[in-house]
Amino acid sequence: MSDFLRVASVSDVPVGASLKVVVNERDIAVVHCADGVFAISDICSHADVSLSEGEVIDCTIECWLHGSQFNLRTGEPLSPPAIFAVPTFEVRLVTESDQVFIEVATEPKPVSTDGKQ
Ligand code: FES
């Protein structure tokens, strides 16, 4: 079971935005879409590019360099040229003193045997 690290307040990441954070020495993109807050590896699986600099479209994030879109829930690419999923991380929202904080698991979600998360 993973530990969680508090990385930001929800007010730091409005709907449609993403924020690069570092958890356990990994760069992670925290992304807020209409369905909630998600955490996905910040490094595109196609090349060493920061996904948090891409555009949030529905519940995907689009790599700014070649346009692959990644499912925020599973990390799977939905369009080429990327073919490999990126790791995803559990997120929990914690309310304290009328503020909602984002906490991200320190280890990625397990990958299933079919390569999906
Ligand atoms: S670097 Fe992300 S799709 Fe090519």
Automatic annotation (TrEMBL):
UniProt keyword RNA-binding present: no
Keywords: 2Fe-2S, Iron, Iron-sulfur, Metal-binding
InterPro entries membership: Rieske_2Fe-2S, Rieske_2Fe-2S_sf
The keyword Iron appears for this protein: yes
SUPFAM superfamilies, per database record: ISP domain (SSF50022)
Record PROSITE patterns: RIESKE
An annotated Gene Ontology molecular function: 2 iron, 2 sulfur cluster binding
Domain Rieske positions: 5-100
Pfam families noted in UniProt: Rieske
Protein name, as recorded: Unannotated protein
Source organism: freshwater metagenome
Taxonomic lineage: unclassified sequences, metagenomes, ecological metagenomes
